[in-house]
Design brief:
11 strands; elongated; five-stranded mixed beta sheet; alpha+beta; 46% helix; 12 helices; six-stranded antiparallel β-barrel
């Protein structure tokens, strides 16, 4: 399985072979320019693309230089321009003798064969096998350079309904259009794949959870705005998608778990009404929470503080409304005003999840309390116990 960079190099080499393979100086100059841009990985890729031979980088570069000399000599001997592939084939048959039984194949057929192992036939996105391989590679790269990595899984809402009412041909056209919208909305370094059926996966290197939310919600809005055939007959009166987001080292440390967490977030988005993006949230809690309405102040690092409205609270954490998103992992300084208490309760908390509330353009922030003085913790316990008893009456 080749990765995205390898596919790009093979595409560049194929273009050279189609247009410049008889002009030795021009071909050599363009190969050198490609090597400057892509590194010595170009040489093994070139020999694999042209001769289907595997070499390490150093060996491939050495063979390339020797083929150039052989090409020059052949052209001089026959007194006419020789195609690079002819010189390369003669070199590996007569000089280096790496090929004993050569087989000639039309390059477009070779490209098609290569693509069939990587590309989904319907959408022309990468397929599931390529997605799994790329995710593993990106996780290794992110771990090596300590960089963020976010995974998004999209699913077309009520797609069975769309197929049943419009037919599978219309359904396929809708999936192709959806694939184009997603692909056109991301960077070259991002990987877009058809995950299966009406599901699509998006790997976002160098992207944290908040960045993933911005990108995926932009895609969701584009889909909602686009006109799909008979989309107005869908349950939501539009053709829409939902998405689930999970981030490496925040939600999971290996690929299979990251997929599982993104899928769970997608399920939450569906359960909450569809046509929305949900972040993965670990719902396990060590303490019982009560619904409460409280106000307080919070500060991020050395900020001066801003008012928030708590929705529910426990000894271990708080869920509150806030007017802007706060990055997951941020450490907050909270000052909470309890009824009947003169001094506010002060504590430190870590942001665990952030979700946009679309109807009023605010955010639900879930935090876990990481530091609180014992007297204030006791006061919070008493308040929660008393509030819970009042609700029972």
């Amino acid at each position: 399985m080749v990765e995205a960079r390898e596919v790009q190099m093979q595409s560049e080499i194929s273009r050279l072979l189609l247009h410049d393979s008889k002009d030795r100086e021009k071909f050599s100059r363009k190969v050198n320019h490609l090597a400057e841009r892509m590194g010595d990985e170009l040489y093994p890729s070139m020999l694999f693309t042209t001769a289907h031979l595997d070499f390490e980088k150093a060996a491939a570069k050495k063979h390339w230089k020797e083929i150039l000399r052989h090409w020059e000599g052949m052209s001089r001997d026959v007194k006419r321009d020789i195609d690079f592939r002819v010189a390369m084939l003669d070199y590996f048959i007569a000089i280096n003798r790496r090929i004993r039984n050569p087989k000639i194949i039309e390059i477009k057929i070779f490209q098609k064969t290569q693509q069939e192992t990587l590309i989904d036939e319907l959408t022309q996105l990468y397929n599931y096998r390529y997605f799994i391989k790329s995710l593993d590679q990106e996780i290794v790269r992110a771990s090596r350079y300590h960089s963020p990595l976010t995974l998004v899984i999209f699913d077309a809402d009520d797609f069975k309904h769309y197929n049943d009412n419009n037919g599978h041909l219309a359904g396929n056209k809708a999936l192709k259009k959806l694939a184009r919208i997603i692909q056109s909305s991301v960077r070259n370094v991002d990987v877009v794949a058809r995950y299966g059926g009406e599901e699509f996966a998006l790997i976002l290197p160098e992207t944290n959870k908040e960045g993933g939310l911005v990108i995926s919600d932009r895609i969701r809005e584009k889909v909602e705005r686009n006109a799909f055939l008979k989309g107005e007959k869908q349950p939501l009166k539009r053709f829409t998608v939902s998405g689930g987001i999970a981030t490496l080292n925040v939600d999971a440390t290996i690929g299979s778990d990251l997929i599982k967490k993104a899928d769970q977030a997608l399920y939450r988005a569906k359960a909450r009404g569809k046509n929305q993006i949900a972040l993965y949230v670990d719902e396990r809690r060590d303490f019982d929470r009560i619904r409460i309405s409280l106000s307080g102040r919070l500060a991020v690092v050395s900020d001066t503080g801003d008012v928030f409205e708590a929705l529910n609270i426990s000894v271990g954490g708080i869920l509150f409304h806030f007017h802007k998103a706060i990055p997951v992992g941020s450490i907050l300084h909270l000052s909470l005003n309890l009824p009947g208490r003169k001094r506010p309760i002060n504590c430190k908390a870590k942001v665990r999840r952030v979700e946009e509330v679309k109807k009023n353009k605010t955010y639900e922030i879930g935090v876990s309390i990481t530091q609180i003085r014992q007297p204030e913790k006791n006061a919070l316990k008493r308040f929660i116990t008393m509030s819970a008893e009042k609700k029972k009456k």
